[in-house]
Inverse folding.
């Protein structure tokens, strides 16, 4: 459908990528660019609504049906404490695997596939606690700063009282 | 290696089935059904377990099973009487076999003397009764016939294999004189049949095993080996003679080596001291000039043999009067018994003899001749007589179940799309859809039936538990099971074992009183735990009931208060107190016993049962007993639901819990002092839960346009859910939320609607209990 599979054309590129490099899928939320390692991404699909889950935090947008499996959707903007996204058809859900679970992350747009060197990854500067909590590191790519998302941290603490 | 592991896994699967079968058989035997077929079933089960164990080298298991089997064998042919004592010993032995199997499966080692006491009792029983008869093959062949008749050792290879005249044709002896080894020199003649090789047995391995028993000499008998040009690739031409010197060794031990090729070869074992010459002129068994035709035994000689058998003065007259005269008599020699009778051809020939055919069929001789040929079926595939079955990976079945579930949903979606105009225009389409609906129903039922299994598989493990508990607690406990053929989904059954174990433990430990107390209370000394299963609508009820003391409510309440499970200012009803035993960390046992009392039991019951969509209810009568009811869904895959709307989102409520629905404008709500609402239904006040409020959803629906869904939860407790709209009924496939997310309070799972959207399943029972917690807090 609207899902666009990246897996196939990506494999050639990963072959080219050396051991010391990392391929990222970059996506944007407002002006900010974030990235996740490409191997964790299962598919990218357009936002098509989600069934809200009761008793969960605001960044849990609900669940969607991914070919018969129920997958929760996390609003990354809300996760960073920036208020809920008002999604349109142009918003994108990046479905990825975290451990043995599949989760979807709602972002504004997917921008690029980046190949970065592992040496270029910097620690997140101390300061903003949400950033340090949710990011694994920061990498600069063509003068853009890309935050590496820590998926485990993003999906944790979804319950109201948890 | 992994292949072997596969075989092992299959073996353990089979073992658990066989052990279940053993429990069943003995349950019947205990009831007094002591027919031969029961014993045979038991014997077969033990034999199969032993056989596999031997193949995998579980020697402890083999040893025990063998002793057990020997006893069973004697019981079977009446040499040991099946007294209650023997039955009890056997039941205990089943437990030990089960322990051995478990130990083998988990790779643990049982103490070396585990079961030694029982084993020695087997031996004592077997010895005591049969000191002079020490051969278990005889029994194996006689068992099925009450008629006095001497079993015949037959040679599948045809008459010629190694027993040419003049050699040492020694007949196997069934009622031989005591054969205690004098000088320990044994002569063994081993004539393998084609089947032995076909089953991938290797004589070399047998010889090695024999060699381990003592000093051994093997001579191959090659006299039957034809010229190379006549060689048939699969024929067996070679036999062996073995001289084994092993002082103090019994014939039994030698037989044991050949245990697994039993029936696939001829074994003649004789003691050199007793057998002068080449085994001629033996006291009870005769060396007769065997049929000299090397390959095809002819009819006449066979029939002659039969006549010998019939006319034998040593035997009581056998029911063959009209048979004998028809036979062309051709005496072979003065002998009490004949020996080499090729089984297959004999059976064929016997059936072909024209006039007295029916009688022949009925004769033990024909039956005996046919038996070795089918002995494999007797031992291993005895079950094939009944239902034929195949083993299928559960995953595969589940895939089908899931797809059928999706199909059902698609079908109901299609049906929903048909509005009146469409119906009028496309009558063919409508008819097609109706047929589709029927077929899908049928398909669904059939698929569900594949997964359904009788609860027997779980129930049958419980008698053993009850026995052990009775011993440990020094109480007298009788376990009754009812409705064990009730069928439930396999997944449900798997989840049942733990809860049932805990419940029965609880009943035995806390419910049933000691014999003295029971007598003092005017109850029978033996306490009864009744385990029953029945189907009630879309649910299965599993009930564990005991006639013990019931729940000590005062103590429960006090403990619950001490542990902070119940706030001090709340006075729960009796029924609520009873339910407290399922609270986590709760235990009323004054002393922690090793059976129960650690406070982990009953909440495991609750969580296990909840996990499979069931519920638990307990009811107690002080001094009279206690009843715990598990209500389980018939199937886990498809759920009949009512689709409702709350705060704009779709939710489904399991139809099984819905009592009725009504419009809010017609419902009579009342305010209670705390500010909450209750609903008055036919004089009953029911707790109201506004789902929108509870789920934190905003609703635009005016209160009067809302609906009330009256649901019944466990213990006939009702709860009224307020929803925005009722959309309709449909079937849904349950999907787990936890698979990719986590458990959400008040939600039992998700499901996918016909339009592809996800709807959430309301956990009615869960809503009610969280409500209680919130009140208590």
């Amino acid at each position: 459908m609207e899902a666009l599979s990246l897996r196939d054309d990506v494999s050639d590129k990963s072959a080219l990528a050396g051991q010391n490099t990392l391929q990222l899928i970059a996506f944007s939320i407002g002006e900010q660019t974030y990235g996740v390692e490409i191997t964790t991404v299962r598919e990218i699909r357009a936002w098509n609504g989600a069934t809200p889950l009761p008793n969960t935090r605001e960044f849990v947008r609900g669940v969607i049906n991914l070919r018969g499996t129920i997958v929760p959707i996390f609003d990354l903007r809300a996760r960073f404490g920036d208020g809920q996204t008002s999604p349109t058809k142009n918003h994108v859900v990046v479905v990825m695997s975290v451990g043995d679970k599949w989760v979807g992350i709602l972002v504004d747009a997917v921008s690029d596939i980046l190949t970065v060197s592992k040496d270029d990854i910097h620690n997140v500067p101390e300061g903003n606690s949400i950033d340090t909590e949710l990011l694994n590191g920061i990498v600069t790519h063509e003068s853009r700063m890309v935050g590496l998302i820590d998926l485990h941290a993003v999906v944790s603490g979804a319950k109201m009282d948890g | 290696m992994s292949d072997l592991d596969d075989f092992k896994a299959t073996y353990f699967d089979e073992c658990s089935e066989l052990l279940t079968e053993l429990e069943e058989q003995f349950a019947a035997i205990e009831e007094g059904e002591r027919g031969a077929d029961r014993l045979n079933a038991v014997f077969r089960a033990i034999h199969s377990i032993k056989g596999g164990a031997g193949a995998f080298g579980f020697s402890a298991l083999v040893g025990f099973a063998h002793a057990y089997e020997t006893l069973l064998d004697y019981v079977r042919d009446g040499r040991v009487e099946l007294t209650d004592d023997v039955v009890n010993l056997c039941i205990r032995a089943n437990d030990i076999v089960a322990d051995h199997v478990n130990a083998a499966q988990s790779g643990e080692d049982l103490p070396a003397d585990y079961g030694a006491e029982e084993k020695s009792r087997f031996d004592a029983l077997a010895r005591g009764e049969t000191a002079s008869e020490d051969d278990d093959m005889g029994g194996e062949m006689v068992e099925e016939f009450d008629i006095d008749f001497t079993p015949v050792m037959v040679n599948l290879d045809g008459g010629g294999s190694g027993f040419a005249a003049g050699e040492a044709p020694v007949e196997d002896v069934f009622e031989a004189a005591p054969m205690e080894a004098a000088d320990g020199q044994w002569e063994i003649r081993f004539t393998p049949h084609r089947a032995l090789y076909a089953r991938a047995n290797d004589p070399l391995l047998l010889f090695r095993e024999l060699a381990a028993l003592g000093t051994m000499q093997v001579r191959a008998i090659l006299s039957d080996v034809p010229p190379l040009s006549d060689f048939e690739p699969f024929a067996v031409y070679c036999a062996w003679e073995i001289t084994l010197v092993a002082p103090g060794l019994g014939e039994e031990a030698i037989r044991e080596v050949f245990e697994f090729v039993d029936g696939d070869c001829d074994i003649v074992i004789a003691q050199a001291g007793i057998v002068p010459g080449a085994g001629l002129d033996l006291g009870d068994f005769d060396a007769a000039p065997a049929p000299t035709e090397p390959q095809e035994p002819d009819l006449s000689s066979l029939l002659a043999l039969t006549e010998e058998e019939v006319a034998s003065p040593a035997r009581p007259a056998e029911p063959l009067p009209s048979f004998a005269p028809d036979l062309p008599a051709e005496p072979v020699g003065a002998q009490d018994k004949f020996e080499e009778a090729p089984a297959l051809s004999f059976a064929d020939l016997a059936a072909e003899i024209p006039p007295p055919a029916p009688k022949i069929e009925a004769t033990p001789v024909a039956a005996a001749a046919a038996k070795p040929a089918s002995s494999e079926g007797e031992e291993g595939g005895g079950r094939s007589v009944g239902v034929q079955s195949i083993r299928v990976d559960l995953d595969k079945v589940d895939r089908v179940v899931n797809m059928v579930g999706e199909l059902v949903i698609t079908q109901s979606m299609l049906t929903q799309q048909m509005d009146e105009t469409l119906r009028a225009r496309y009558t063919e389409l409508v008819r097609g859809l109706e047929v589709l609906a029927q077929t899908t129903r049928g398909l669904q039922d059939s698929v569900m039936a594949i997964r359904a299994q009788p609860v027997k598989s779980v129930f049958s493990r419980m008698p053993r538990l009850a026995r052990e508990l009775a011993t440990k607690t020094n109480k007298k406990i009788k376990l009754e099971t009812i409705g064990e053929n009730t069928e439930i989904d396999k997944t449900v059954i798997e989840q049942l074992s733990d809860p049932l174990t805990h419940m029965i433990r609880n009943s035995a430990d806390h419910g049933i009183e000691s014999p003295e107390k029971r007598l003092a209370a005017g109850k029978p000394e033996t306490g009864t735990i009744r385990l029953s299963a029945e189907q009630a609508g879309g649910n299965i009820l599993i009930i564990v009931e005991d006639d013990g003391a019931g729940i000590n409510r005062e103590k429960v309440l006090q403990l619950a208060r001490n542990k902070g499970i119940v706030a001090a200012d709340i006075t729960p009803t009796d029924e609520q107190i009873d339910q407290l035993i399922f609270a986590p960390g709760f235990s009323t046992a004054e002393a922690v016993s090793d059976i129960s009392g650690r406070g982990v039991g009953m909440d495991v019951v609750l969580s296990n049962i909840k996990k499979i969509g069931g519920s638990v209810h307990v009811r107690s009568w002080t001094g009279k007993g206690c009843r715990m009811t598990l209500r389980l869904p018939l199937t886990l895959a498809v759920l009949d639901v009512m689709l409702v709307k709350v705060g704009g989102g779709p939710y489904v409520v399991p139809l099984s819990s819905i009592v009725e629905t009504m419009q809010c404008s017609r419902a009579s709500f009342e305010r209670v002092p705390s500010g909450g609402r209750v609903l008055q239904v036919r004089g009953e006040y029911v707790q109201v839960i506004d789902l929108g409020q509870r789920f934190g959803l905003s609703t635009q629906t005016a209160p009067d346009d809302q609906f009330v869904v009256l649901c019944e939860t466990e213990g006939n407790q009702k709860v009224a859910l307020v929803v925005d709209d009722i959309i309709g009924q449909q079937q849904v496939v349950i999907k787990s939320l936890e698979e990719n997310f986590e458990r959400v309070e008040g939600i039992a799972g998700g499901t996918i609607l016909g339009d592809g959207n996800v709807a959430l399943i309301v956990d009615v029972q869960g809503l009610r209990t969280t409500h209680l917690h919130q009140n208590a807090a």
In short: Residues 2-30 of chain B form the longest helix (29 residues). Confidence is low (pLDDT under 50) at residues 130-152, 154-182, 275-384, 590-599 of chain B. Chain B has five domains: 2-131, 185-379, 394-453, 455-633, 638-776.
